[in-house]
Amino acid sequence: MESNNLFFRLCDPLQKHIYEADLISNQEELFGQLVLNKMVGIAFKKLEYRALNPELRKTLILLNDNYLNRSALYKKQLKYLVNNILANAEFDYSLLKGSFLSTNLYKSGQRVSNDFDILISPESISRLQKLLIDNGFVQGGVNSSNEIVPATRREILESRLNFGQTVPFVKIIENSPLIIDINFSLDFKASANNIVGEFLNDIVIATFENVRFKTLSPIKFLLHLACHLYKESTTYYWVARRRDLMLYKFCDIYMFINKFGTIEYFSDLIEQIKKYNFEKECYYTFENSSIIYPALNKIDGFLKVKESIKPENLDFMKQIVYPREKKLFKYDMSFTDWFFCPDRVSQLEEIPYEEY
User: Fold this and answer.
1) pLDDT per residue as tens digits for the range 116-151
2) What residues does 149 pair with on adjacent strands?
3) How far apart (Å, rounded) are the C-alpha atoms in residues 253 and 218?
4) What is the β-pairing status of strands 138-142 and 169-173?
5) How far apart are CA 128 and CA 116, in angstroms?
6) Nearest of 269, 293, 292, 289 to residue 279 by alpha carbon
7) Which residues in the chain land under pLDDT 50?
8) Which whole-number Å values give the CA distances from 183 to 96, 116, 149, 152, 268, in the listed order?
9) pLDDT digits (tens, 9 = 90+) for 39-64
10) Quick one: which of 128, 155, 173, 176 has the most CB atoms within 10 Å?
């Protein structure tokens, strides 16, 4: 347990000093966790290089260089996306997650993003798709040779029906893929949702390096982060692929609240959470984020947020849903043990779906 807490401290962007001697005793596991959770850029300067295995030390340096290069490429691609593509958008949209977080909250190289998330209303999907296709984007993935692999008709339909987002759109620019995810729902459901329209009516302009782009207001941004984290943390599809509990997502919550969290902000946040019935999503996100980053609980007003939105029944905190199969599972361990569990699927016990 103590080594787990040390790992979380090592991955705290706001903590400058750490004594990580216990971590060094299991270097292979440490490196695996850093890579899996995309936290190399944050932990890099906190590790005692001389205490590391020489080969792991070399790898650490290479990985950090890669993070710095990816961060620079991401900002370059963001400029291209904003100036060359979205400048021609004749519909409401908002850039989400990494576009703002990587450029406004984290230092260069601390947070890497693989794609750009765009929130639009369901009615605007075809218009954005046409805009992307007209500019050379293809719906699909990228293989190890940096070649686009077009998505099948089935993959396109399944993504829209089961995940509330489209299969990514990809374009190769200067030998690097620019990947765009279109989001049109705040959960795994594909049904039209008036909430998305309300979110898109609450847009602010963010800037970096003289580039201006649309994103959600600070409260709506946090609500989206919380809903997205909850969706992926509690949906079987992501659990089975070990992409459910990525530490960087909890770190995003920590960093965002640290930047915007004031008494006035929290008061408005509570009101908005209750307005949209996001108590479950936000309580799950805030409570588990504060387990990883206890400093959250010291921010004046944050504990009141958790107390105000805490549901009476907390069974959902340890449940995993498989919406496509209409199945529901539960697990029986602490959140920290669940986070570090190497085979989470094997720990699931099916329960009646009606309880969801």
Assistant:
1) 999 999 899 999 999 999 999 999 999 988 889 888
2) 141
3) 12
4) antiparallel
5) 14
6) 269
7) 189-192
8) 9, 10, 21, 19, 25
9) 999 998 877 766 788 888 899 999 99
10) 128
